[in-house]
Sequence to fold (562 residues):
Amino acid sequence: MRNFSAPLWLRALALCIGGVLSTVFVFISFSALEALWRSEGLHLFSAVWSPQNGHFGILTMIHASLVLSLSALCCGWLLSVGCCCVLRGLGPKWLAVLLGFALRFMTSIPTVVYGFTAVFLLVPLIREGLGGSGFCWLAACVMLSIQGVPTMTLVMDEAVRAVSAETSLTSAALGITPLQNLSRVVLPTARPWLLSAAVLGFGRALGDTLLPTMLAGNAVQFAASPLDSMRTLTAHIGLVLSSDIGGGENLSLLVAGGLLLLGSIMASLFARRVPGKKRI
Amino acid sequence: MKSMRKNTVVALFSVLLLGLLAAVSSAAALDAFKDLKGTLDIAGGTAHIPVMKQAAQDIMVAYPEIRITVAGGGSGVGVKQVGEGLVGIGNTGRPLKENEVAEFGLETFPFAIDGVAVAVNPANQVKELTSAQIADIYAGRITDWKELGGDTGAINVFGREDGSGTRETFTEKVIGKTELAPSINVVSSNGAMKTAIAQDKRAIGYVGIGHLEPSIAGVIIDGMVPSQENAANGSYKVVRNLFMNTKGKPTGLAAAFIDYIFSPEGARIIEASGYIPLPKQQ
Fold:
């Protein structure tokens, strides 16, 4: 409980930062709403993107953003839980140490390095092994999962370590093996933190611009198979902004930005509402 | 410690001195701007932007009193804004139409040639294509290299994003009004296009002629071989001129800027952006 009074400068600073963040939030929401209101004839929610004919439909991009971030989240989160278990002793000790070191190192690698490496290593692999041009949903999904794993694992690991420290002695006294402890006691108790790691991963996957732009192919179509090329909302913003044209395209960008923000907020709210087991 | 500090100071000083020398040495063509001040707005074609931005930067760094803004919007926007007096120079990627010259009284200055080459991977057997075949490839009607005489394999088609000047030239001069297939992969720059084509044996795409290099192979279109020389002498027709336009004869800052573009420094900037500089037409 708060039984101390923070210094004035600290409170003022917190207020300022809160103000700045809300400004960003308000700006994006208002711009998106205004863009929606002004865009009657532009068919913003159609599937046709054809600026020469006045069609600025971003439906395919919304679909692409959602399926890409959800698939990357699933793969990444499952991998993270596995990594977490290894770190907590499910495998040999040397593996846990190595993995911990590798994960911490991976958090410091810039996104563009992941993208660059994938363009030269992963894309030819997919192209030769599975067909298509290599720039597809699968490539972006794999790299987004790999990129999300370190952050999610480290967030989960903090919680799992704390819970594990609390319960391991009691469990050992009850005759529960470490494996059972991990799977039946620790992970269920740490569920709120696992979920918040998932929200973090989802937000990151949804908002990532560089990896989908470099790897997903950017075609304006509904991706039916993992080998299809797709364009996410973020890649769309990046591509259109880089081409300096005003008018309908800008409005579609503002709405795209608003939708991304909305997606992150909804994921956040959803995670809060899912009840987790509190302390045992 | 004291000698280390002295060494750092000496090193810093010499770096500053060298920088100063470099700045002074490139100031020759910039002297025209010495007594000018004010704002110059430039708008129009997106292909011109790299050249305009670099020239504007050079001028503004040398003379901080001058402000030059560069915007895009396309050729149509360039003509309209310069005609209505909203900008000092309007850029177009096409010659002015009769009615535009008559209505606004514009003067036009072609300053560069922008050529676009269709490129495939060097390992590809197909070296020649007709523009009808290229249109069919981009519309999704031809999907396999064996239909064109190459090895069996699906064609991976790459295109550029919507505002790209390279894409405009390609669309105008090669494929015309064909509806593009939705499955075309989009890359955002000439560099990204080169990487994609160089890595993929079944890829096809288009780049500015200035970007052709051994890692990709230019395709002969309708018998025309893509190269800077052919673009300059007119035998390669997939080119367009880039124009600067002013309302009436250019004066003051606009005139000085146009002269800077036609100067040797300007020619260097144009070449660095991948275009071919044109001499000023008298």
About this structure: The two ends of chain B are 64 Å apart (CA to CA). Chain B touches chain A through 28 residues (CB under 8 Å). The longest helix of chain B spans residues 2-25.
